Amino acid sequence: MALVNLPVLITSGDLLPGGGELNGRRWAGQQLLRCWARQAGERPLALANADPAQLKQLEPWLRQQGFAGILHGLGLVDPEPCRRWGGLFLPDPSIGRWAQWRQPAGAAAFSLIGQIHTLSTPAALGHLQDLVSEPVQPWDALICSSRAGRDAVVTVLAAREEQLLQRTAGSEEQLQSLRPQLPVIPLPLPPESLPAEPLARGAARRALGIAPAEAVVLWLGRLSLYTKLDPWPAYTVLERVARQLPGPLVLIECGPDDRPSQHLAWEQLRQLCPAVRFVRLGGEQPVPEEVKHQALAAADVALSLVDNAQETFGLAVAEAMAAGLPVVASDWSGYRDLVGHGREGFLVPSRWAAVAPALSPALGWQQFTGLQGFPAVAGALAQLVQLDLAAAEIALLTLLTTPALAKAMGAAGARKARQTLAPPVVMEAYEELFAELTARRQQAPPMATQPQPVSPQLDPVRVFAGFASETAAPRSTMANPADLAQLPQAVRDQRFQLWDLLQYSASGERGSDLSAALIDALLLKHDQSTSCGSLET
Q1: Cβ neighbours of residue 383 under 8 Å, at least 6 residues apart?
Q2: To 5 degrees, how large is the angle CA 2–CA 6–CA 10?
Q3: Is the CB of residue 107 less than 8 Å from the CB of residue 140?
Q4: Of 61, 60, 102, whose CA–CA distance to 83 is shortest?
Q5: Treating both helix axes as pointing N-terminal to C-terminal, what angle do 315-322 and 403-420 enclose, rounded to 10 degrees?
Q6: Which partner for 448 in 193, 232, 268, 444 could form a disulfide, CB atoms 3.0-4.6 Å apart?
Q7: Cβ-contact 10, 89 below 8 angstroms
Q8: CB-CB contact of 7 with 36 (8 Å)
């Protein structure tokens, strides 16, 4: 069931096309924006940005994606305009923080919908804890891209709830009733990643210098020891597989290097695997889409033995499936939602090392306090993840020596990708969720419809009111922007950015009665003789 309008979608600068170096989160955000434009169709579309005027520059691109309605640009200062749209969609899990922002409009004014990506950073884990302590409601939702991701969210919520219960002797049932919804909806793949026909294998191999008789395994994605996978276990498996095949084995590694680059270290490991021929596509520069499609077309099998906690979904695995490749992947996180063991490929068992639980608190504390950065802790944790390499070897040998099975599994993966990851399918799941949240919001208790005071953490003047020796009296003023011209030019030049910030903060639904008062306040600050009164007035 489609809603009248889609929720407001926040578009940060790096979400827009060309907004920064491509990574999984930014790629997913850009696909979300494309889907939003297509799904809106002829309906009005609301996007929110710190500078709404910039969104006009995006309108031609939105039209190209299929949007034909009226574009509305909203700011991020006043929550009231979101009421008309029924919801605010954030491409991250920070809905707890935004729930505080919503309070002046009333908790039931609109729904907040977030989305998980990497959950292992201190910021992401902090956002999850906020879901318990901030005013999030049951008509809000945090969309999880996988069951494993949802399980991680529930683990954090349950632990935080337990801490609060111990401190307050409160009601567990009441706390859990206030949780946001946690639906599992996969990330969408763009239409160009869902080809209707198989990719041209022969032409792709010729372009990459790969012979028809060579067996080809593909790694698709960023190469990072710290935040993606340790390559050595996969290399050792491939070396053993290569020694058992009747012909040569090629590994295509398609994706960017980590920053800073670990190129030399990876090359040293490759030298230890003489039976495998390595073809490196990417590196310091992003991989062009044409080259990525060649790699997908040239491969026989996609291999993804990821061992890192930063992974929650698996875009590279989804793309490989969509291209018709059977997949050998670690049975890890969201991969098990994508790949059915024995259907679209094979899943390689994974486990935490026996010593991992004992080391985990010390690693977590170092990350939490900043003693160690996220990449170092993520990489250290990955060293405690063990994959069944014998199972990986058997899976690769089976697929590389049984072409009919590989073809059948690849075809099954392509069908699953089209059936579950196509943008219309994912957006329909979103719209069903939005309708459910609307129904929940309509059943909200009366108190939730009333405006609430802003939290002190969002109201610094309230926090520091006692710093001043006197209380300001309300003033009636007819001040206008021209009055500021009476101040010396040097004063205005040095402060214009601060005044612009104040003017922006006075904008929105409440801006009409604040502008004159703000100008009078600035005059009182800098030259009381030119203001409409004095401190004693």
Answers
A1: 230
A2: 155
A3: no
A4: 102
A5: 110
A6: 444
A7: yes
A8: no
